[in-house]
Write a structure and sequence with these properties.
By secondary structure, the chain is mainly beta. It has one helix spanning about 5-10; strands at about 15-20, 25, 35-40, 45-50, 60-65, 70, 80-85, 90-95. It has a single domain, classed as Sandwich (Jelly Rolls). The strands form two sheets. Strands 1-8-3-6 form a four-stranded antiparallel sheet, covered by helices on one side. A four-stranded antiparallel sheet has the order 2-7-4-5, with no helix packed on it.
């Protein structure tokens, strides 16, 4: 099992932050002080952006269900997410170092 796959299992089991994926954009908790990147994994297709830009359908970064993405991020940022077609959950694992 690869390290990335283990990380996805860990965040889905509650080892990170999460945001609801709904028809209305929602935001994650604020990222911690040592965050350098985030590992994202979603249960449904969604659109993601970093606040203060609010995610909207058709803009920002598209993340397909059950796929993961690693994106550069920094402390005090929040991630905004909105569904593409169906509701779900966006799991967020802050990465440090």
């Amino acid at each position: 099992m690869t390290t990335r796959y283990r990380e996805i299992i860990n965040i889905a089991a509650g080892g990170g932050l999460k945001a609801n994926i709904t028809a209305t954009a929602s935001a994650s908790a604020i990222l911690s002080g040592f965050t350098r990147a985030v590992l994202l994994w979603a249960t449904s297709n969604c659109w993601i952006d970093f606040m203060p830009t609010t995610a909207s359908n058709g803009s920002g970064m598209y993340l397909a269900a059950s796929q993961y993405a690693v994106i550069a991020a920094s402390a005090s940022q929040q991630i905004s997410v909105i569904q593409d077609a169906t509701a779900g959950t966006l799991y967020i694992k802050p990465l440090t170092g």
